[in-house]
Amino acid sequence: MATGPRSLHALLGGGAVADLLLWRRRNASAAAVVGATTVWFVFERAGYSFPSVLSNALLLLVAILFFWAKSASLLNRPLPPLPNLEVSDAIVEKAANHALVWINRLLAVGHDIAIKRDRKVFIKVILILWVVSFIGMLFNFLTLIYIGVMLSLLVPPLYEKYQDQVDEKVGVAYSVLSRHIDTIITRAGQSAKQKKTE
To answer: How far is 150 from 32, CA to CA, in rounded Å?
Structure first.
């Protein structure tokens, strides 16, 4: 049973997150950009640390709730409406199952490298880890997260607009990269055979 190509909106889940990433709900997308920029500015440029901002926000929240509850009892008003704050077993189980899938994928890649001695996977992992290391050298963690958020809000609508051209160029780049990786693997295999015969 062959299925046709799916739209980018469907690939992103088709819900509110897809609408946000594709700027179908412009106010929410703009609010995400402004919120991410504000958080980045507060922590990166203004010099605040995350624990101090979190503790000050929680201190303010607890103080407001305490004085609201005290004034409510003195003025015969209702107490502040607080929802039941607990995490259900279903949410924890769903998160654990999702994490389990990713952990098993990582372990399968490690198994392919260590046991099956798959050179192609080994070279891909080495390249990916080198790129991540290089990018980590250039930026600190918060700036890297900010860049990731901005890219996730800017790339999907551009890809949706220019999908055919991007797919064509990525296909060409993938075939060139695959040829280079295959060449490296065959050369490494030939040099290993020559060393064994000597």
So the answer is: 9
Q: Could you read off the pLDDT of 18-50 as tens digits, one per residue?
A: 888 888 888 988 999 999 999 888 888 888 888
| Verdict on whether the full-model pTM lies above 0.70 | no
Q: Which amino acid is at 137?
A: M
Nearest to 39 by CA among 48, 27, 30: 48
Q: What gap in Å lies between CA 25 and CA 22, rounded to an integer?
A: 8
- What are the φ/ψ torsions at residue 84 (nearest 5 degrees)? -70, 115
* Sign of the torsion angle spanned by Cα atoms 118, 123, 124, 130: positive
Please provide residue 86's backbone torsions phi and psi, each rounded to the nearest 5 degrees.
Answer: -155, 155
Which of 8, 40, 39, 7 is closest to 21 using CA atoms? Answer: 8
52: which 2 tokens?
Answer: 């101090």
Non-local (6+) Cβ contacts of 23 within 8 A are: 29, 153, 157
